[in-house]
Amino acid sequence: MDPFSAEGELLTIHNAFHQGQYQAVLDFDTSALSQSNITTARVLKLRAQIANGDIQGALASIEKEKGPDFAAVKAFAQHSKGDTSTAEKQIEPLVEKSSENATVQILGSVILQAAGRTEEALSLLSKHQGNLEAIAIITQIHLQQNRTDLALKEVSAARKWAQDSLLVNIAESWVGTRVGGESYQSAFYVFEEMAQTPSSTSAKSLISQAITELHLGRLPEAEAALNQALQNEHRDIEAVANAVVLATLMGKRDEQEKYLAELRKESKGHALLEDLEEKGRAFDQAAGKYAPKIAS
After folding, report:
1. 10 Å Cβ neighbour count for 253?
2. Is there a contact between 88 and 73 (Cβ–Cβ < 8 Å)?
3. Which single residue of 50, 212, 248, 292 has CA 20 to 30 Å from 107?
4. 74 vs 87: CA distance, rounded Å
5. What dihedral do alpha carbons 249, 250, 256, 259 form, nearest 10°?
6. How far are the Cα atoms of 28, 41, 56, 227, 294 from residue 48, in angstroms, in the given order?
7. What percentage of the chain carries pLDDT values higher than 70?
8. Ramachandran region of residue 281, left (φ > 0), alpha (ψ -120 to 50) or beta?
9. Degrees (nearest 5) of the Cα angle 105, 4, 143?
């Protein structure tokens, strides 16, 4: 039986993780799990611990653990700390020797993609055996490549055999926010249900709802959702990044500067900051071509 299927014993912890309910993942009782699922559940707990900001605690708990699953988590922890060089060095031998391992595929592809090694990430993910998280990451990568057609193809294929999967719904909604039009509303319904249902709400789902509200031009509603996300005990850096965007759109300069300062402090290499710097250089370069020339 597929442990992540509707009848599988990992469905609850798996869904909680992908809904961003990291404390629920950490509190999940694994004592009744079959032996074959213990490592998978522990990896999810370690990833939740890292997502909650307790990277050192996660590393300390597996310091003496062996095997590709825990080695991949150790590399991912370094990636989450911002030490991309160490993360790459640690994941490379695992990709070479344990590319069939699902944890290596998932965490390794994230590390490789972040390092700009997209083809290697996709090659690693291509080895998956019906792993929905692998499909979700492939979808994300294609969206980052501006290949919406390939992302749509990926989720459409998964929909045929995993139509009731939460991850497929989420991935399909990511694609919907890129396709636009009526798809914005469809994506909003998925994220709103997750964000506003007590059993599934989290900072992650609130941020996703806020993003779809932004696409729909509903700025006050987006602000309300983001404010909820920002009040979370473990402040999600993506909530801060999207607060920068929202404050800019709403013309709230003071809030924009406040959230930009926080983003620079907490995540210097964040994609939004890099994008802003790149566009700033492009603007300066373009403006330089039209600098007034004063005759002597």
Report:
1. 10
2. no
3. 212
4. 8
5. -90
6. 11, 11, 13, 22, 60
7. 95
8. alpha
9. 50
What's the token pair of residue 1?
A: 């039986």
Q: Buried b / exposed e across 66-76, counting CB within 10 Å, b at 16+?
A: eebbbbbbbbb
Q: Tell me the one-letter amino acid at 135.
A: I
pLDDT exceeds cutoff 90 at 78: yes
Residues contacting residue 138 through CB under 8 Å, at least 6 positions apart? 122, 125, 154
Residue 6's pLDDT is 46
pTM: 0.89
Greatest alpha-carbon span in the chain? 85
Helix, strand and coil percent figures for the chain, each rounded to 5: 70, 0, 30
CB 89 within 8 A of CB 60: no
- What's the confidence (pLDDT) of residue 1? 44
Q: For residue 212, what is the enclosing H or E element?
A: helix 203-215
For residues 16 and 25, the answer to whether their CB atoms sit within 8 Å is: yes
Reference 203, options 230, 184, 174; nearest CA is 230
233/120 Cα distance (integer angstroms): 36
Write out the two tokens for 290.
Answer: 């039209």
Out of 68-77, 129-138, 215-224, 233-242, pick the least confident.
Answer: 233-242
- Integer angstrom CA distances of residue 188 from 16, 23, 68, 176, 263: 19, 25, 38, 9, 26
- Sign of CA pseudo-dihedral 163, 167, 171, 173: positive
194/47 Cα distance (integer angstroms): 20
DSSP 109-123: HHHHHHTT-HHHHHH
Burial profile 96-108: b = 16 or more Cβ within 10 angstroms, e = fewer: eebbebbbbbbbb
